[in-house]
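Researcher: Structure for this, please.
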Amino acid sequence: MATSAPARLPAAERPQPPARPSSRRRLLVFGINYAPEPTGTALNTTWQTEALSELGWDVEIVTGVPHYPMWRRVPAPPRERHGDVSVTRRRHYVPAEQTAIHRGVYEVTWVASALPAIRERREVD
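Model: Predicted structure, token format:
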């Protein structure tokens, strides 16, 4: 028994995605480490966000205050542009002494401070 192919709607009748003010793809990155931190995850996150921005993506990152590898806060504005990447920094606890409890508090305060900033953000892809 032969089956017919599904009927295709003419292009004019197909559902269209909602119109956007920009045709650029939007990306929101959530990560505690970012430039100007000189090592580790910050380098990877910074490189990836900048590379996507150069490829035409509209990139925004919600990140923590610079603190690594010295484990103390470095002054930084709460909002800035790093190239074409929009950077929002949220304050969090930075432990001077590394213990499991301090590390847990560090992670919890980072997430608690960053979640409101993420909820405020515009639609992303």
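Researcher: Any notable elements?
Model: The domain at 24-119 is CATH 3.40.50.2000 (Rossmann fold). Residues 100-119 form the longest helix (20 residues).
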